[in-house]
Queue: 2 jobs
Job 1
Amino acid sequence: MTIKSISAILTLVALSCLLSSCENQSKTSAPTATVPKTEEHSQHGKQMMEGMDAMMQRTKAMKMTGDFDVDFSSMMIEHHQGAIDMSRIELAAGTDAEMKTMAQQIITAQQTEIATLRTFVQNHPVKAANPQPMHGNSMETMHQQMKSMPMTGKVDHDFAGMMMVHHQGAVAMAQEALIKGKHAEIKQMAQQMIADQQREIAAFQTWLGKNGQ
């Protein structure tokens, strides 16, 4: 074999190695489109809070009629919708089976209550509007408590913590309905809301205690 032949063979080997190296480097350095888990989780907590902000804006924009039971029903519809929106985020992004089960139970129960409350409002038209402030303190306190909560970046934990505060707001509203409400149907619903949501608050507290706050 001549020197020229050997040189040609070595050149081909070197080129082959170079091409192989470039190909491997391209495969390993290709950028990925995945979002870091912590960033995903933070985004879901942000979405829950944005949902609560939107709920507060809707309730503040509501025109009060002066009929306590009608106004209570209208505001509770919005309050329930806020819980449903948060629960849907938990179902989509949460990983804990217990929290996802609770989220589904909240959606089912509060969709049913929304339908009942809407029927009540439709069947009790207010002839003369006499706007009065209502539930301002309990709603605003709930909102401020949620805004001041530190987000953990863990969807299940943030859902449990925020839903506890949200339920406490609903309990305060329902307790006011027991005192000021006129219709037996609304008083009965308010009593059931208190029992249901206090039970769920206790369940959230227990879960957070076991899983670390």
Job 2
Amino acid sequence: MSNRVVAFDAAATAAAPRADLPRWDLSTVYPGLDSSAFAAGFAATLSRIDDLVALFDEEGVGSERGSAAADLDGFERVLAAFNALLDEVETLESYLYAFVTTDSRDETAQARMGALQAKKVVLSKLHRRWDAWVGAADVEALARRSESAAAHLYQLRRSRTSAVHQMPRDQEDLAAELGPAGGVAWEKLYDTVTSQIEVEVDLPATEDDPGGRQRLPMSEVRNLAW
């Protein structure tokens, strides 16, 4: 999520008045970070992560009780719930991403993003359990029995490959828990600090703008490179 890159034309960016630059319309997702709709949606998504943990436990996902092929109905139920939740989380994270990447000083957005990333540790653990569960099955045979499995065969094959390289579950859980304090924390610090750095650059002249030296945030300067 955090590796999105948007290309800008340097001359067009220099010529366009700031008021005319494109803007994200986030109201199609939630009215605002301080809205009751966002608060309810945020809480509901985090709650559904816990619900998915309960479903994984109920179906024995990643346990020694068997593989994804043992109970076809259970497999399809888990697959549908997992997909639905991942869609929710992606939408929520993208919504917050739009705030923190345009204003890293937005404390409300940063706090919400931090809370979501902490909860995503649970999702990371579920991913490892899913891979182990799928990896214990014959995914080709599973795809012949289930239309849902057939539609996800490429990803099931990737999960099977990932399962081969997994550590024991307690070590995988530890690695997931260390993520927010390791690479994720460094990436967040880098993005926050660099977004608040301003530098002077010489912009090219265009028909509508004489160009010249301007002071811009480092994030805008990086975009000019494209």
